[in-house]
Amino acid sequence: MGAIASNASAGLQISLLFCFLVAAFAAHFYDDFRITWGEDKAKILNNGDLRTLSLDKISGSAFQSNKQYLFAKIDMQIKLVPGNSAGTLSSQGQYHDEIDFEFLGNSSGHPYILYTNVFSQGKGNREEQFYLWFDPTADFHSYSILWNPQRIFFYVDGIPLREFKNLAWMGIPFPTYQPMKLYSILWNADNWATRGGLVKIDWTQAPFNASYRNFDDSNACVSYWGPTTSCTTSGTRGGWFWQTLDYSDQGKLKWVQDNYRIYNYCQDTKRFPQGLPPECYISTNN
Question: What is the predominant subcellular site recorded for this chain (predicted)?
């Protein structure tokens, strides 16, 4: 989201991530975010309510939140790069935590791939990938990450795509202690992202632009000093901090995973010849 995480034209990637510090969204781009890369390619419009990132053959662009969070419900609307757009990626450090929404670009006539992953203490390899049931370049859509001490949920337009449970009692790392900031990156990943790097960016269609609006971190625990947090809205009294999926949301999750999930690491026996990761046998990743 903030990953969202996490380019356009064959071999492009947009990443929204909750990284080493996880990402969170705020309402105003002037006050709550700063440009970290490609200053001349990132614009603030509509009195601070709209942010655009751009990619050309010289470089991409990126921004990050000023706040850092230890648990949060983050929402933001994104309109993705149109046209021939392949590729996308993001990562930080060796022992980082990260919650990824990444949008892998496409060759013309093919759908975007939405990539999700969870890193904790530098351990990742928990990818799930999805097609979307709409054209993400035609209009803005909402992408959300809900991260509480028990679970991580990924949502699109309020529909759950994925649940990742805290199974630390089994020795499975879960992001619990390190505050995170929101990062969003638009960059060239045509060396790997689309069909393993076979499809390249058509630079004649550059620059490529992605748009962001309606960031919301009103449900969040803001971290000021290490793990010390101040929670907003319902905070630890209920709501998002203890959220699970009700019967209706479980049905929506199953619908997405049955019809739009195209890769699940918990079914990739070739990747794990010695046996699937232990969470695959007891969590909702199955």
Answer: secreted
